[in-house]
Specification:
Elements lengths: L2 H4 L3 E4 L6 H31 L6 H29 L4 E3 H34 L4 H4 L2 H27 L8 E2 L6 H5 L7 H34 L4 H29 L7 H27 L1 H16 L1
Parallel strand pairs: 1-3
Antiparallel strand pairs: 1-2
Helix pairs in contact: 2-3, 2-10, 2-11, 3-4, 3-10, 4-6, 4-8, 4-9, 6-8, 8-9, 9-10, 10-11
């Protein structure tokens, strides 16, 4: 392959084949969802930083989850919104590869952060007397840094394997952003190694963590059933059920997308699932935590009360 065949100046993002009126409607709707995503996760971050009662390992990991959700949505949604209104739906090669890297890095990091959160709840409920020792701030910091580092390194592996491939046309990505499976379809070379690595990474980053989460919550459920206090049992159920909602939404859609057999319309399926975790999942996370968590609602009331008293 010659250099001009390998280095593609730009790609065309096909997005969703919609009528102009429907595009305008979806632009307004998705902009509203994106604003709620930024607002909801920013409120979570603000409450955790302002309220000292939330300076615990659980909310430390929740703050990282909020950061990941803001970054994840901001990586994909603004370009999608712009393409809903623009006739020119091009993206340069380097920004496209960077978008792929960030998308994979944030997705991998969120998987690992959710595992850390489930482990934190397991220790808090099943080993409450040793909680402060097991989940010390040093341990939590190491877990968070490890999650970000592993997520970024794994995404870097995917990008390096993409950059070794020649792209010699067509240059149309049947997606609303540079999703890795859609980009690989444009390569004019054998992509079996990429596919194997994606599947192996899915097992490592999806199946493995999901099994750990399910084991943790199975142990948690058994411990909750042994709690004598009705109030303590309700509090534990409330906290853990919100975590399970997030885990189910995120891991379920990711496994369907990257590990389930492809349907007759894989491109449309991928776009809908990607839209779910680019836009809906980051928006739902703060809603699930804030609506089902008494401590977060209490922190919000205290912060608002302070503002009024000032």
């Amino acid at each position: 392959m010659t250099e001009n065949q390998t280095w593609v100046p730009e790609f065309i993002l096909l997005g969703f084949p919609l009528s102009p009126k429907l595009r305008v409607f979806l632009f307004g709707l998705f902009t509203l969802f994106y604003a709620f995503t930024l607002l909801g996760n920013s409120i979570i971050l603000g409450l955790i930083s302002l309220d000292s009662r939330l300076h615990t390992p659980m909310y430390f990991f929740l703050s990282h989850l909020a950061i990941v959700d803001i970054a994840y949505a901001s990586n994909n949604v603004p370009k999608m919104l712009a393409n809903l209104l623009n006739k020119e739906k091009t993206i340069s090669f380097v920004p496209c590869i960077m978008q792929t890297f960030l998308y994979m890095a944030f997705a991998h990091t969120e998987c690992l952060i959710l595992v850390m959160m489930s482990y934190d709840r397991y220790v808090a409920i099943c080993h409450p007397l040793h909680y402060s020792v097991i989940m010390s701030w040093r341990v939590c910091t190491v877990q968070a840094v490890t999650s970000w580092a592993c997520g970024s390194l794994l995404a870097l592996v995917h990008v390096i394997l993409i950059l070794r491939l020649p792209f010699c046309g067509p240059h149309e990505i049947n997606h609303f952003f540079c999703e890795i499976l859609s980009v690989l379809k444009l390569a004019c070379a054998d992509t079996r190694l990429n596919q194997v690595v994606i599947f192996a990474a899915s097992v490592f980053i999806l199946v493995g963590p999901l099994c750990l989460v399910l084991v943790s919550y199975s142990r948690i459920l058994l411990a909750i059933l042994r709690i004598q206090s009705g109030e303590g049992r309700r509090k534990a159920f409330s906290t853990c059920s919100s975590h399970l909602c997030v885990v189910g939404l995120f891991f379920g859609s990711a496994i369907v997308m990257y590990m389930a057999p492809k349907s007759n319309h894989p491109e449309e399926q991928q776009k809908i699932l990607s839209l779910f975790y680019s836009l809906f999942n980051p928006m739902l996370n703060p809603l699930i935590y804030s609506l089902r968590n008494a401590e977060v609602k209490g922190a919000l009331k205290r912060v608002l009360w302070k503002e009024r008293s000032l």
